[in-house]
């Protein structure tokens, strides 16, 4: 009877499915050590292709030298990194090694006690102070708690610089040797560039809220504004310096008309696309961005010059720095091994410079051979000296969302700066309470 | 039929056909964009046709990313989840429809109520459960929690309700067991809804992004939507746009093909459950 | 009469709910058949669902143990402008997308149910968007909605679809209608193919115009389908999440409730508050669904 066979087939399928599920399940999981003493370390970073490539190389080298260590490397898009981290940490597990920006470190992970303090032994040092002595003073502050305990070492340390397209400058009859020193000059030169047919003279990048807040802090550092009060307990978005920062943004992006913010790329797919493709004449840049452009658009790259960040007050230049740090999960069962691996990564600072243009601020880095090869490195080194880490606080991504909303409404919808900042101030107050 | 009503019918049809072309234009735009050389995708004025057809863009995702791997993973997970759903939902629908036992209606209502809780919050407790089961970074974590669906049970119950009790009664008198009746009488009559269910489940699974990201986003188990998002984040320069388009078009292909192959049965299937009350 | 013959299954539908008592042994076996599904449900849907209800009474940051706070999460939400805006955005998106989508689907179904050469192809054109996935299609739509994209250039518009509070909501609505109409078209076509053809033809012989025969005959007969469609529309609309994530990430007045839930839980680590929103939306959906079903039943009666 075919029908009875059908019924038997149904049962057979069930059995197969259940056993498949079971056997597949058995393949998964399996974290940490195994019988032969092999240690598996999981390592998560955000996505940045040149960085991923070097990480893979370094992992292969490390595994070759340490046959008992296996590194499981996973990359997660920036916008999803926090989600993925939080969920995996909620079970009291998660990756062993994380590469994370200083905002997240100081805003969330350190205060919530999720990370292990740096283990100097992993670096062959006696104490954290010994380890710190190898870095430019102040550069590790991005990974410290209020008491000064260090929770990570920098994988990249970024100062803010400015890039101009020298060819566009020549087209407009401007001297590329005289880059804009103030934001007012950016507007003036922008108008000249517009006349020469370069309609996108200067634009900010409007990607996810993290990008909004980094531009905001860059400007606010110069205008003397702040997001939070000095004690971090209340919002400070209504203060004159903060208003001045957003006013400046609106003027640069909207009222001056030197570029159309609406055509600026909005997805993190191609952050500096407009600069790289030779459409945009001026942009705020970081060392890694220049390297990315060198690889993707060599033709444009040769026309770009890295110059100091324009200022509100050129007599007292202020910049913004940020860093990513390798850190170890407090729940990791292999902390010592993790730090040893990080020590290997951190020891390759010359390659991070030459391959990815990631600066690791070890003492004397700017005099190393690969640093000398990076154009404009003196500008970047200078920016570090004038740089300041961001202010952060609890529930920082909520605050960043609030900032994004305020900027969007002021820049794109044209709402008055006072009104959007008052609303934002109220929203941040709710976030902090 | 009057001339007037026929004319109205034709006019309506023409408008509808024009609308259909407008709907499909978006997809055509995607396909054409995928064939363009970099830089032509967003040109002013708009140009529909590429200056030169660049089929190479369709190869790029495979050459530059583990696209084949993502694809295989998605197909594997999709097929197993779909089979599991068809099986569990048909059995449950049959049970809820043709048998009476205490708790039956309560169970059915609770199943339906789960449709009303936003998935995004469910994922947090679900993740810790799956973690405890040791299924993080495994296909089991992707497959087993998706093994049944409230919508599917609802669909199958409604469909099996329409199977006349007399047929089952007759089979019972012939000595057919519960499962034999299911295989011999019910299943042949609800093939349509089963096909519809299969399509819906496959589509939903194919589109699922957040759960796979949370539970299994290592290279070995990464599915297509997670892979696409990562590709988006990884691609540099204008050169990446046509490649992303090609990837997007390739990612649509299986659902479109499945849809085409099941279309007939599918329309029939939904009617069975929905039309008959 | 040609169009709408019925399959054997539908000829004698048994009245649901009223069934003869059966031998209990059979029923035990029958009950067992629901076990695989129910076991999966209990473990992977009901248990986490109950957990969400429980967590709505706690302050829970995901990485430290939950702290009981009673109804604090609910009182916070009652006074939270961001949540209120999200509710409003969800409401606008639901009405803006699903009302036109349903109406369009109904009209399309009527036009396409006629036996006409090419109708199958046109149907396919409307079906295609349903078969695409949000993640893949967002890449395409971002190009369509770009200031220099397909939409603006084709119609000579200068709308900032994705970069203004005035237009972003409608950009999502347009995309939503595009993607969702086919889903309801399927349901309506299925319903139409079940209508007894004689009724239709008789009406036309009476001289009832196409318009009148639609309102007097077709539409009332489609009421059960319309009921299902409107319930599904509300559920899909109020639970919208993917289109907003992939296209705007909630900027420019498009942060809908489920996106707010997602951000609250995962980005801001306030799982308790996110759970409270979920509980609230659960109750809203149950209430709206019951109201809808009751309204349709009363009209029927």
UniProtKB/TrEMBL annotation, chain A:
Protein name from the UniProt record:
ABC-type glycerol-3-phosphate transport system, substrate-binding protein
Q: Which PROSITE patterns match?
A: PROKAR_LIPOPROTEIN
Identify the domain of life. Answer: Bacteria
Q: Matching Pfam families, A to Z?
A: SBP_bac_1
Secreted found in the keyword field: no
Q: Is Translocase among the key words of this record?
A: no
PANTHER family with a match to the protein in the record:
ARABINOSE-BINDING PROTEIN-RELATED (PTHR43649), DIACETYLCHITOBIOSE BINDING PROTEIN DASA (PTHR43649:SF12)
Endpoints of the signal sequence:
1-26
UniProt keyword annotations, A-Z: Signal
UniProtKB/TrEMBL annotation, chain B:
Protein name, UniProt field: Multiple sugar transport system permease protein
Its subcellular locations are:
Cell membrane
State the similarity comment. Belongs to the binding-protein-dependent transport system permease family.
Q: Where is it mostly found? A: membrane
- Membrane-crossing ranges are 7-32, 70-94, 106-127, 133-155, 176-204, 241-262
In its UniProt entry, the species of origin is given as Nonomuraea jiangxiensis
Q: What cellular component terms from Gene Ontology apply here? A: plasma membrane
Question: Could you tell me which SUPFAM superfamilies the record lists for this protein?
Answer: MetI-like
PROSITE patterns annotated for this entry? ABC_TM1 (PS50928)
TrEMBL record, chain C:
- Location of the region described as Disordered in the Swiss-Prot/TrEMBL record: 1-23
Q: Which InterPro entries does the entry link to?
A: ABC_transporter_permease, MetI-like, MetI-like_sf
An example GO CC term for this entry is: plasma membrane
Q: Provide the topology term for how it sits in the membrane.
A: Multi-pass membrane protein
* Keywords attached to this entry: Cell membrane, Membrane, Sugar transport, Transmembrane, Transmembrane helix, Transport
Comp. bias regions, Low complexity:
1-12
- The residues that cross the membrane are 28-50, 91-112, 124-145, 165-190, 276-296
Q: Where in the cell is it found?
A: Cell membrane
Superkingdom of the organism of origin: Bacteria
* Any Pfam family hit: BPD_transp_1
Q: Which residues form the ABC transmembrane type-1 domain?
A: 87-292
Q: This protein is called what?
A: Multiple sugar transport system permease protein/alpha-1,4-digalacturonate transport system permease protein/putative chitobiose transport system permease protein
Classification from the root reads: Bacteria, Bacillati, Actinomycetota, Actinomycetes, Streptosporangiales
């Amino acid at each position: 009877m075919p029908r009875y066979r059908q019924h038997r087939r149904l049962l057979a399928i069930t059995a197969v499915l259940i056993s498949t599920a079971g056997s597949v399940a058995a393949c998964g999981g399996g974290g940490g050590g195994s019988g032969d003493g092999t240690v598996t370390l999981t390592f998560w970073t955000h996505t940045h292709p040149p960085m991923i490539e070097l990480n893979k190389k370094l992992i292969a080298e490390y595994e070759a030298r340490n046959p008992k260590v296996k590194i499981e490397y996973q990359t997660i898009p920036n916008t999803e990194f926090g989600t993925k981290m939080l969920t995996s940490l909620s079970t009291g597990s998660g990756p062993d090694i994380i590469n994370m920006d200083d905002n997240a470190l100081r805003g969330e992970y350190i205060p919530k006690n999720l990370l292990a303090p740096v283990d100097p032994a992993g670096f062959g040092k006696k104490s954290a102070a010994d380890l710190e002595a190898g870095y430019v003073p102040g550069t590790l502050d991005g990974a410290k708690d209020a008491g000064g305990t260090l929770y990570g070492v920098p994988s990249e340390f970024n100062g803010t610089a400015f890039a101009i397209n020298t060819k566009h400058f020549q087209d407009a009859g401007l001297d590329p040797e005289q880059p804009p020193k103030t934001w007012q000059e950016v507007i003036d030169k922008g108008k000249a560039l517009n006349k020469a047919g370069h309609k996108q003279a200067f634009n900010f990048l409007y990607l996810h809220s993290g990008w909004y807040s980094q531009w905001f802090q860059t400007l606010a550092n110069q205008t003397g504004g702040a997001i939070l009060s000095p004690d971090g307990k209340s919002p400070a978005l209504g203060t004159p310096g903060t208003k001045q920062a957003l006013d400046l943004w609106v003027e640069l992006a909207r009222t001056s008309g030197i570029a159309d913010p609406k055509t600026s790329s909005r997805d993190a797919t191609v952050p500096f696309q407009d600069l790289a493709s030779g459409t945009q004449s001026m942009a705020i840049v970081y060392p890694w961005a220049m390297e990315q452009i060198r690889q993707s658009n060599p033709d444009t790259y040769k026309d770009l010059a890295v110059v100091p960040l324009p200022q509100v007050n050129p007599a007292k230049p202020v910049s913004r720095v940020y860093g990513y740090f390798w850190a170890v999960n407090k729940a990791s069962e292999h902390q010592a091994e993790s730090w040893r691996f990080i020590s290997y990564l951190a020891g390759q600072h010359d390659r991070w410079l030459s391959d990815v243009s990631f600066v690791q601020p070890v003492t004397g880095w700017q005099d190393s051979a690969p640093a000398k090869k990076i154009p404009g490195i003196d500008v970047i080194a200078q920016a570090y000296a004038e740089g300041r880490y961001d202010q952060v606080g609890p529930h920082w991504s909520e605050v960043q969302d609030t900032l994004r909303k305020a900027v969007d409404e002021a820049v794109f919808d044209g709402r008055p700066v006072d009104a959007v900042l008052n609303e934002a101030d109220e929203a941040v107050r709710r976030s902090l309470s | 039929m009057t001339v007037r009503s026929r004319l109205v019918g034709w006019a309506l049809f023409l408008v509808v056909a024009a609308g259909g072309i407008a709907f499909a234009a978006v997809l055509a735009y995607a396909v054409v964009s995928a064939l363009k050389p970099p830089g032509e995708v967003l040109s002013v004025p708009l140009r529909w046709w590429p200056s030169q057809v660049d089929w190479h863009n369709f190869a790029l995702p495979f050459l530059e990313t583990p696209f084949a791997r993502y694809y295989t993973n998605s197909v594997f997970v999709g097929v197993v989840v779909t089979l599991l759903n068809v099986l569990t939902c048909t059995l449950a629908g049959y049970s809820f429809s043709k048998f009476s036992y205490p708790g039956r209606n309560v169970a059915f209502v609770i199943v339906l109520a789960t449709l009303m809780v936003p998935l995004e919050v469910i994922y947090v407790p679900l993740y810790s459960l799956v973690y405890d089961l040791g299924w993080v970074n495994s296909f089991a974590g992707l497959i087993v929690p998706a093994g049944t669906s409230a919508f599917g049970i609802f669909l199958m119950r409604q469909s099996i309700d329409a199977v006349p009790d007399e047929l089952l009664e007759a089979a019972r008198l012939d000595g057919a067991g519960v499962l034999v009746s299911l295989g011999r009488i019910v299943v042949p009559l609800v093939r349509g809804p089963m096909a519809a269910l299969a399509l819906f489940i496959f589509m939903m699974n194919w589109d699922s992004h957040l759960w796979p990201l949370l539970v299994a986003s290592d290279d070995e188990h990464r599915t297509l939507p997670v892979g696409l998002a990562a590709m988006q984040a990884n691609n540099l320069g204008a050169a990446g746009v046509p490649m992303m388009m090609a990837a997007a078009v390739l990612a649509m292909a299986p659902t479109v093909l499945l849809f085409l192959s099941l279309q007939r049965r599918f329309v029939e299937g939904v009617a069975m459950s929905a039309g008959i009350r | 009469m040609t169009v709408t013959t019925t399959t054997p299954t539908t000829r004698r539908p048994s009245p649901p709910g009223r069934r003869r008592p059966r031998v209990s042994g059979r029923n035990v076996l029958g009950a067992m058949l629901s076990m695989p599904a129910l076991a999966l449900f209990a473990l992977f849907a009901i248990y986490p669902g109950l957990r969400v209800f429980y967590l709505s009474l706690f302050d829970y940051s995901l990485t430290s143990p939950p702290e009981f706070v009673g109804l604090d999460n609910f009182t916070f939400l009652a006074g939270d402008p961001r949540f209120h805006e999200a509710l409003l955005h969800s409401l606008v998106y639901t009405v803006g997308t699903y009302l036109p989508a349903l109406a369009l689907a109904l009209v399309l179904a009527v036009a396409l149910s006629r036996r006409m050469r090419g109708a199958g192809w046109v149907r396919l054109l409307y079906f295609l968007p349903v078969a695409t996935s949000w993640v893949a299609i967002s890449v395409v739509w971002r190009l369509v909605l770009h200031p220099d994209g397909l939409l603006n250039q084709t119609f000579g518009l200068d709308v900032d679809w994705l970069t203004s509070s005035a237009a972003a909501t409608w950009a999502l609505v347009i995309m939503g209608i595009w993607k969702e109409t086919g889903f309801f078209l399927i349901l309506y076509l299925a319903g139409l193919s079940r209508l007894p053809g004689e009724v239709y033809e008789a009406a036309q012989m009476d001289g009832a115009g196409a318009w009148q025969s639609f309102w007097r005959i077709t539409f009332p007969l489609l009421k059960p389908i319309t009921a299902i469609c409107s319930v599904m529309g509300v559920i899909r609309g109020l639970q919208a999440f993917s289109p907003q994530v992939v296209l705007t990430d909630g900027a420019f007045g498009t942060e809908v409730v489920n996106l707010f839930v997602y951000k609250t839980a995962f980005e801001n680590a306030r799982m308790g508050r996110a759970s409270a929103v979920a509980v609230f939306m659960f109750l809203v959906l149950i209430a709206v669904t019951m109201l809808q079903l009751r309204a349709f039943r009363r009209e029927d009666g």
